Predict the 3D structure of the following.
Amino acid sequence: MKISSDLSEEEAARLLLENAGDLVDYAEPNYLVYAQNSPDDPRFGELYALHDTSQGGIQGTADVGAVEAWDIQTGTDLAVAVVDSGVDYLHEDLAANIWTNRGEIPGNGIDDDGNGFVDDVRGWDFFADDNDPRDEYSHGTHCAGIIGAVGNNGVGVAGVNWRVKIIPVRFMGPDGSGTVANAVRAMDYATAMGAKVISCSWGTTSYSRALEEAVEGADAAGVIVVAAAGNFASDNDLTPVYPASYSCGNVISVAASDRSGGLAYFSCWGANAVDIAAPGDAILSTVPGSGYTCMSGTSMAAAYVSGAAMLAWAHRPAWSHDEVISAILDGATPCPSLAGRVASSGRLNLLRMLDPDAPLPQPPADPTMHAVALTLNQPDFRCGEQLTLDVTVGFGAFSPDLLCDGYCAVTLADGRLLFLGAGGRWSSAPVPIVSGFRVADLKAQIGRFALQGNLPCGRYTWYAALTAPGENPYAQASRASNLAQAPFDIVAVQP
């Protein structure tokens, strides 16, 4: 039924019940409903970071709410610069979303737009100093696919934006390295050519004033710089990684999350220096030659946030870069395991970025599932030096009455597991380091242990697992969220 324009739907429903209760059982607004906007790309089902169905819900525990966000926005023709190892601009799943410099006439050997670069129709290669920013390392193409592989085209995968304009800007060579000087030139070019976002899935621990000034120049132009936090499994508050650690207001520093939604074991973190986490573990995306493969790293996580910024601007074109950044950080899904690790204490959520009133994704229903975090007091140790281990239960521990056994183990060079037992001693049998541990909140420390005995020099991996009391930890190994790992090294004492 139609109602008076001065009444809301809710008011009209209330008046109907009040005035015609004998005729009306109930009244409610005639809400609009929409189809779930999933793309038809054949490998979309492999993109857990966009749509995690492992928990059977609409939005899973590890994804960024892409399917729900795409009911609101799928992208538009705004430009994002992938400053990286180049982009395969002929890739079957990228070609339609590659930027074209309309100010240039292709192949005439003239700098038609007067920007100092001849025939830069598809961007520029600052590594080879020519107009062909083709990717010879795969990294840039992989990041470009995360940001904007063409969606719903029946080919390959889908990016965060089904429609976007990707500016390929190459400064890294076939070995994945490049100079700061060329990175500065690349970022200045991206800013000058009108990119709204510069995606920087790379970094250095060496401070550069020139690089910082390039970031500041982008800030003055209203450009967001999204930067990877680094893959050193270290604290960026103590050891900065640039450009992610520059204090410029236009920088978003991104850590990597894993399939359980917690911090990936390789990711850098920083309660102050890192802003947000995004999926970065085993991410499927595009590679040169119209191929697809999985890669892991904060590079992939930064690409997701770059895509998010472009999606936000597609939805709200009048927003300033500060407003876009606020929407991304304020919309993050809170994750207790990320508290104290990233400033937002959360993981990227595209839906809540576009719609702040959208509900938070529900945690997993299985009360025996956890996310276990391991923290070593340092990443490498000398032979015979004492190792100290912290074990913390994180996101997923919902029941205050749940009791757990906790196990810690280390792999030897031959693949055998040694379990850490009471008193810090080793055992070849799965002996729990703690029994009947009561999970009373969302973040609780099992304990801090000093290990006894020497381990030979070499590369090791710590494992920690939680089980129900008395259960064999091997039986729980398939539950990724119940298992954590962290690499470390035993090094020889230098003479």
Observations:
- The CA atoms of residues 167 and 468 lie 51 Å apart.
